[in-house]
Design goal:
- It is a single chain.
- It contains 8 helices and 12 strands.
- It has 310 residues and is an alpha+beta fold.
- It has a single domain, classed as Glutamine Phosphoribosylpyrophosphate, subunit 1, domain 1 (4-Layer Sandwich).
- The strands form 2 sheets. The protein has an 8-stranded mixed sheet. Strands 7-8-9-10 form a 4-stranded antiparallel sheet.
- Strand 9 and strand 10 form a beta hairpin.
- The longest helix has 23 residues.
- The radius of gyration is 17 Å and the shape is globular.
- The chain binds aspartic acid (ASP).
- Aspartic acid (ASP) binds next to strand 8.
Length: 310
């Protein structure tokens, strides 16, 4: 299929974003970061590039800002370190790559891409992934690069306790898993997601973000999806794949499939959060079952839109 429509959407996490805690300056900074990610991804699509490259580039921008819980801004785990998860998927041939529990990798989404392109695997984790990162010569950073005072304070409140907290659920309720979905000019879809997971997580806890079908899914037959929210619930709901399944097997529209997953299937599983999705016509849906989601998209008219609250 060939089409001239290109489309792109990004998110920077969903949850209880307190309007009161959001100063005009902070809102501006978040929106600017989302727009920068959209511009980077859109530039790839506008010159005929692949959806897969567009989502990777957009997510790299979001990983590089400390505002979001991914890459540089990742939360602290129980040991005071940063363990990151990321994945991406190509809708044309269902190829996928993912990493879990990786440390000191500047852009986990780039490492996930290497897994897809240069390994026989889909998901690699921990020390093995770190060794693979070395061999692939991906950019590494020391712990200081990932230090953020806000994340540190967030962790200090719960360290030494059993409390494991979503970036969404701290006192100030700052968020942040990031993701992108895109449709390219060849009619192909792709999705990417990256996260630092949950504050104070232990036992090498892994969330939905690097799990293909849970936090990320793309299939040219239906849609591309990137999720954010309570990872355990999204894994149990197989949320991203469920949007695809409702479209492919039940004939639902993108909007209706997303509504069923976000508002009917996830809530009974304590699945607070949201997702961004795109279909092969370029329709975009950005939906969530909580007060807000950092999000943005490039509309068919080429205009860039960003939003936080409903
Ligand atoms: N879904 C992510 C996780 O559970 C968290 C998030 O969306 O912020 O690891």
């Amino acid at each position: 299929m060939s089409t001239s429509t290109i489309a792109l959407a990004v998110h920077g996490g969903a949850g209880t974003i307190a309007r009161g805690a959001m100063t005009p300056e902070r809102e501006k900074a978040y929106r600017a970061a989302l727009e920068m990610a959209l511009r980077r991804g859109h530039a790839v699509l506008a010159k005929g590039g692949a959806a897969l490259d567009a989502v990777e580039q957009a997510v790299r921008v979001l990983e590089d800002t400390p505002l979001f819980n991914a890459g540089r801004g990742s939360v602290f785990n129980a040991d005071g370190q940063h363990e990151m998860d990321a994945s991406l998927m190509n809708g044309a041939d269902l190829r996928a790559g993912a990493v879990a529990g990786v440390q000191n990798v500047k852009n986990p989404i780039g490492l996930a891409r290497c897994v897809m392109d240069h390994s026989a695997h889909v998901l690699i984790a921990g020390m093995g992934a770190f060794e693979f990162a070395h061999r692939q010569k991906v950019e590494l950073e020391d712990d200081q690069y990932f230090f953020d005072q806000f994340r540190y304070d967030q962790w200090k409140e719960v360290v030494g306790t059993e409390v494991v907290q979503l970036d969404h659920s701290g006192k100030e309720r700052k968020f942040g898993t990031v993701g992108a979905v895109a449709l390219d000019a060849m009619g192909h879809l792709a999705a990417a997601t990256s996260t630092g997971g949950m504050t104070n997580k232990r036992w090498q806890r892994i969330g939905d973000s690097p799990i293909i079908g849970a936090g990320t899914y793309a299939n040219d037959r239906s849609c591309a999806v990137s999720c954010t929210g309570h990872g355990e619930s999204f894994i149990r709901a197989v949320a991203a794949h469920d949007v695809h399944a409702l479209m492919a097997y039940k004939g639902l529209s993108l909007e209706e499939a997303v509504r069923v997953v976000v508002h009917e299937k996830l809530p009974p599983l304590d699945g607070e959060g949201g997702l961004i999705a795109i279909d092969h016509h370029g329709n975009i849906v950005l939906d969530f079952n909580c007060p807000g989601m950092y999000r943005g998209h490039v509309a068919a008219d080429g205009n860039f839109h960003t939003a936080i609250f409903r």
